[in-house]
Design goal:
This protein is about 40% helix and about 15% strand. It has ten helices and seven strands. The longest helix has 21 residues. The strands form two sheets. The protein has a five-stranded mixed beta sheet with strand order 1-4-5-6-7. The protein has a two-stranded antiparallel sheet with strand order 2-3. The protein folds into three domains: about 40 residues; about 140 residues, no CATH class; about 50 residues, no CATH class. It is α/β, with parallel strands linked by helices and about 230 residues long.
Length: about 230
């Protein structure tokens, strides 16, 4: 990831605004070229609830916000287990809204048509492999949009659980992308015999969560038995 000094960041910001450079033909050309270099040559790291502010550059043009999705090449988005920065948006969320704010945010990534890498990092406590309750709930919440991103961008997408424990200098992480693979026939057999690995359980579970028409669990079935039908 390219590290840019504060003075250089300020110069880049000025060059990307018509307010400072001018809205005539020359000014617009300078701003356009500066915007292209800035968004194509940097790697952006943002929390999911700030993503919509990044992709809509409000200061670039006097004519209104500029959509920069086609310009961005590399992006890593942090999904917090708890929305500690997002209280106001959740308080105003309509009760009949079908999907969560974080899914709304991540849907912006579908427009990154020229992306070279899109990273999604689930950050928070709990098990690094995602087996704790909070991470399970978060994976279930975002599994459909993550599947869409993987289907669209294939190997250009990464998703992992990330933690930094007190006293540690570096983050530790666990790759979660294999959970979105289609489960093998043997995985279902292993589940029947109560010998499935956690990875196999997650593959079976995410396949169920992302199913367009959910199955109906009958009264004589357990949850895990329903996944095998």
């Amino acid at each position: 990831m390219r590290i840019t000094s504060i003075p250089r960041l300020r110069r880049c910001l000025i060059l990307r605004q018509e307010y400072f450079i001018g809205a005539d033909a020359v000014g617009r050309q300078i701003v356009g070229e500066a915007r292209k270099v800035y968004y194509t040559q940097n790697t952006f790291a943002v929390r999911s609830h700030w993503l919509r502010e990044l992709v809509h550059d409000e200061l670039a043009s006097d004519d209104g916000p500029v959509h920069v999705e086609p310009l961005v090449r590399r992006m890593v988005v942090t999904v917090d287990l708890r929305h500690v920065y997002d209280v106001d948006r959740h308080a105003s969320k309509p009760e009949d809204k079908e999907q969560s704010e974080v899914v709304d945010d991540l849907e912006h990534l579908l427009e990154f048509e020229n992306a070279e890498w899109i990273g999604i990092e689930i950050r928070g406590d709990g098990a690094l492999d995602g087996s704790d309750l909070l991470t399970q709930q978060k994976i279930k919440e975002i599994c459909k949009i993550v599947k869409k991103l993987i289907d669209l961008f294939q190997d250009l997408v990464t998703i992992r659980k990330v933690q930094r424990k007190p006293g540690d200098y570096y983050n530790t992480f666990h790759d979660l992308k294999s959970y979105w693979k289609k489960p093998a026939v043997q995985a279902e057999e292993n589940l029947r015999r109560c010998r499935a690995s956690f990875e196999e359980l997650m593959q079976i579970q995410i396949e169920e969560w992302t199913r367009e028409v959910p199955k109906v669990i009958t009264a004589d079935q357990s949850y895990w038995e329903s996944l095998l039908d």
